[in-house]
Amino acid sequence: MRHRKGKSKAKGQPHARKRTLAVEGRTQPRKADRRRRNMLIPTKSGVAPVAIRGSAEASRLGRYMASVSNYLRTGDTDALDEFEGQSIVGHPLITDPDTLNSLAQAGALQLDAIYALPKSSS
After folding, report:
1. Core-most of 4, 39, 76, 91, by most CB within 10 Å?
2. What's the half-sphere exposure (Cβ side, CA atoms, 13 Å) at 117?
3. Residue whose C-alpha is closest to residue 107's, from 72, 60, 63
4. What count of other Cβ atoms lies within 10 Å of the Cβ of residue 83?
5. CA separation (Å) from 14 to 6, 9, 18, 23, 94?
6. Is 117 in contact with 47 (CB distance < 8 Å)?
7. Which residue, among 58, 14, 59, has the nearest Cα to 36 in the 3D structure?
8. pLDDT in tens, 63-78
9. Cα 56 from chain centre
10. What one-character DSSP code corresponds to residue 24?
11. What are the residue boundaries of the structural domains of the chain, listed by start?
C-alpha cells in the first residue's frame, strides 16, 4: 500500500493516526500533538513525576536529560548552557554542575528512565 506524503499510516490505531503522519517514509508526531506523557524530571530533592503535554515539550525534556547524562559522564557543561534559566511544567531545569554532582552522588537522579510508571489502582 502506497502512502502519500503527509498521510498517516498507523493502521488499526485510530488515535495514533490522529497524532502522527508519514513524512519522507518516517512516522513523525504532528505539530499539534498534545498527548499527555507521564515523565520524570530532576528537581533539587530528586526526580519528580510530571505530566508533560505535547511531543515538543517531551523532546525538550529528553534533550535536557541527555545533556545532564553527558555532563556527568564527561564533565562538559556546554550542552547544559542551552537550558540555563528554563523550566518545564513549573520545574526549573537544573544546570548548576555542583547541584547535579550532589544529586548524582546521592543517587537522586534517574538518567536511565525518563517515563514515570503509571500509578497502581490498588
Report:
1. 39
2. 4
3. 72
4. 19
5. 16, 10, 7, 18, 38
6. no
7. 58
8. 999 999 999 999 999 9
9. 8
10. T
11. 1-32, 36-105
Report how far residue 119's alpha carbon sits from residue 117's, in angstroms, rounded to the nearest whole number.
6
Q: What angle do CA 57, 63, 69 make, to 5 degrees?
A: 140
d(CA 65, CA 112): 9
**CA–CA dist 52, 27 (Å, integer):** 21
Contact 41, 48 (CB under 8 A): yes
Going by C-alpha positions, the residue among 91, 85, 8, 9 that lies closest to residue 49 is: 91
DSSP per-residue string spanning 26-88: EEEE-TT---EEEEEEEETTEEEEEEEESHHHHHHHHHHHHHHHHHHHH---GGGGGGTT-EE
Q: Which long-range contacts (CB under 8 A, 24 or more apart) does 18-26 make?
A: none
C-alpha cell, 84: 540555563
Reported as a single tens digit per residue, the pLDDT across 30-50 is: 666 778 899 999 999 889 999
